[in-house]
Specification:
By secondary structure, the chain is α/β, with parallel strands linked by helices. The protein is about 45% helix and about 15% strand.
């Protein structure tokens, strides 16, 4: 097929088209940047908005704080709706995050680490230590009725309940490490630590030992099985006290959600202080009315709980979390990462400021 020669008139037309396209390039680039920014939402280094738009709803899994907020009527202070989900602890929060069914989760400091390792980008937005963590540990090691385990050194060769994505998993690995026992010298029984799962496994002698709550759970367990030889022993000299609020990273890209989370963190801090300063009321509200303890047992649990320590700086928290990441990575054959990556430091002082803590 013969080719038509390009005439001068055609060249002029082509040049005109090219010039028009070149003129539109800056505009097109601006539009594309705008679309990208809109898709990305709020930048993770942008200031958190103060105002929460009308109609915003925050789905929160934080049952203990919920009880304080409802008891004191503090939810009415929020300019948005909080929808509470009865979800707490690592597995439940992780599952809800995967389903995008939860905005804020409450757990120990292990689940955010596990979230990263299972592919869920998360950020910690509130951090709480406990005072005197070695005097008032959150966990202890329960032994099965009739078990020969009398000390952590006796765990060698035993079956131990273990949940890798929870604080209980960290307690098991740390207890073994402190006792100089290698993982190969025990049988780790993979079992999620739901409310009474470990107590049931111990009672049925499916495992020889398991990490259980050092307060309420330990007392209930000994009251029921102590006469049959069940014991509760200390886990060793490491802290197990950190607690956090954490969120999916993508949630913080929603300006409305980010502003609502900021407001919720303030109430969360106030709730921790209320628990510490109203021990008798908290004992009755939670341990007696909700958990069914006698007033005497509830008071004993409160005395053995220590109090919240909400830091204004997260430097120590990041150090503790980095040590935890490095330890768990070695023990679980995972890739370590910088702890600072899972802290949103825009929230660093919000909780402490809300309660006037320096």
């Amino acid at each position: 097929m013969p080719h038509r020669a390009i005439r001068g008139r055609d060249v002029g037309t082509i040049i005109s088209i090219v010039l028009v396209l070149l003129a539109f390039i800056p505009l097109l680039a601006h539009l594309f940047r705008g679309d990208a920014a809109q898709a990305a939402g709020l930048s993770l280094d942008a200031p958190i908005p103060e105002r929460v738009p009308a109609g915003t709803t925050l789905v929160v899994g934080d049952p203990l704080t919920q009880k304080v907020l409802e008891r004191n009527g503090w939810l009415k202070d929020l300019p948005f709706k909080v929808q509470f989900a009865q979800i707490t602890g690592g597995p439940g929060v992780t599952e809800a995050f995967q389903a995008k069914a939860l905005d804020v989760g409450s757990a120990a400091n292990i689940p955010p680490i596990h979230g990263v390792w299972v592919g869920i980008p998360v950020k910690i937005v509130a951090w709480r230590f406990r005072t005197e963590p070695w005097r008032y540990p959150l966990y202890a090691i329960g032994t099965a009725p009739g078990s020969s385990v009398a000390d952590v050194a006796d765990l060698r060769g035993k079956r131990i309940a273990y949940s890798p994505g929870q604080a209980q998993g960290f307690v098991v690995l740390s207890t073994l490490a402190k006792a100089g026992i290698r993982q190969e010298e025990v049988t780790l029984v993979d079992l999620p630590a739901a409310t009474d799962t470990y107590l049931s496994a111990l009672a049925a002698k499916q495992v020889d030992a398991a990490p259980i709550g050092a307060g309420l759970q330990a007392r209930r367990y000994l009251a029921k099985y102590g006469a049959e030889g069940a014991k509760v022993i200390g886990h060793g000299s490491f802290r197990d006290d950190p607690g956090v609020l954490y969120v999916r990273t993508e949630t913080l890209r929603d300006p409305a959600k980010a502003a609502a989370i900021r407001a919720y963190v303030k109430l969360w801090a106030r709730a921790q202080v209320w628990i510490d300063t109203h021990p008798e009321e908290w004992a009755d509200l939670y341990y007696v009315q909700d958990q069914g303890l006698s007033p005497a047992d509830a008071a004993l649990v409160i005395r053995e709980s220590g109090q919240s320590d909400i830091p204004r700086s997260w430097n120590e928290a990041i150090t503790v979390e980095q040590q935890t990441i490095d330890f768990m990575a070695r023990e679980m054959d995972k890739k370590p990462f910088p702890a600072a990556e899972i802290f949103d430091r825009r929230f660093q002082s919000i909780a402490a400021d809300a309660i006037g803590r320096s």
